[in-house]
Amino acid sequence: APVVATTAVIVTLITCVSIAKAKDIYLGGLAWPYFSDTGRDAPGYSIFCAGLTIVAIALVLTWLANYEFQRQLIDKESQGSAENLYEPNIRKYCEIVRVLGVLSVFGLPILAFFSTTSYPDTHKYAAYWFFVLEAVALVVNTIASFKLARLSDGNPYYSSEPGESAVKAFDPWNVSKSSKRRTLYIQVVCTTLFWIAFLLYIPIGLALIDEFQRLTIKDCLNLDLGEKYCTDTMKLNDNETVLWNYDNAHGLNQMRSAGQLMCILTLVGYSLSFLSHNSESLEDDTVEPTV
């Protein structure tokens, strides 16, 4: 499922951008456009809708497979530790991740089918829904991965008996061949990069841009986009088209579109970290003790 999601999103992105550039589709004058603008007009719209629907299905399966792996790992590590109070804590994190991950993907087909020009509010809030829930899911899942690595390598055991050691020493950054640690490292890096891009794309970017403006019919005609296209197909009212004009805040919109791209790429990288979830991960890893 992670490979399918990764392949689908990359193919969809490259195809939509390539078609938009080849057909000289209006993209707001941005060097790197918003992903949604590339899937606004036919034939990119059909590819955009189909691609994001496939991505949504694959992401649901990815988050569910991730939860199943975590559940099996917790069950394995908790064997013989009936009084381990650390296990329920990890399970709560895993449950939260599963719910957030599955709920977030419903935003993808919605934002795909409800285009940014025809249904701007629906499209916008569906995108926010997806990225915000994914942002939280990445953080919570990375915390869960840290706790799982700690449970596996350090075997923290909270005992009700006095005098017993509460938790064994655990250094998550100690070099090890543990697949769980490799997963953790990848997830920490991708989550950090995602949050930097996410902040630039949504909260900071939106706070700095006063108002999004429509492209006027006059400007549309001056750009030689076609009389029928400007005065009929994309007409909003007597003066404006449904197309967006980013010239009033070109630099900020370029920053947001770059942030959006980085969010997509880091999500791809994060999902690939799940490829280390295999049967070998459920076996005992050989970890040399830290002196």
In words, what does this structure look like?
It is a multi-pass membrane protein. One of its GO terms (cellular component) is endomembrane system. This is CWH43-like N-terminal domain-containing protein. Helices cover 64% and strands 3% of the residues. It has 11 helices and 2 strands; from the N terminus they run H-H-H-H-H-H-H-H-E-H-H-E-H. The chain has helices at residues 2-22, 35-38, 44-77, 86-104, 107-113, 120-154, 179-201, 203-208, 217-222, 227-233, 250-272, and strands spanning 213-216, 240-245. Strands 1-2 form a two-stranded antiparallel sheet. Helix 1 (2-22) packs antiparallel against helix 11, helix 3 (44-77) packs antiparallel against helix 5 and helix 7 (179-201) packs antiparallel against helix 11. The two termini are 40 Å apart. 37% of the residues are buried.
Write the SSE topology.
Elements: H1 2-22, H2 35-38, H3 44-77, H4 86-104, H5 107-113, H6 120-154, H7 179-201, H8 203-208, E1 213-216, H9 217-222, H10 227-233, E2 240-245, H11 250-272
Antiparallel strand pairs: 1-2
Helix pairs in contact: 1-3, 1-11, 3-4, 3-5, 3-6, 4-6, 5-6, 6-7, 7-11
Keywords:
291 residues, mainly alpha, 11 helices, 64% helix, transmembrane, membrane, DRAM/TMEM150_Autophagy_Mod
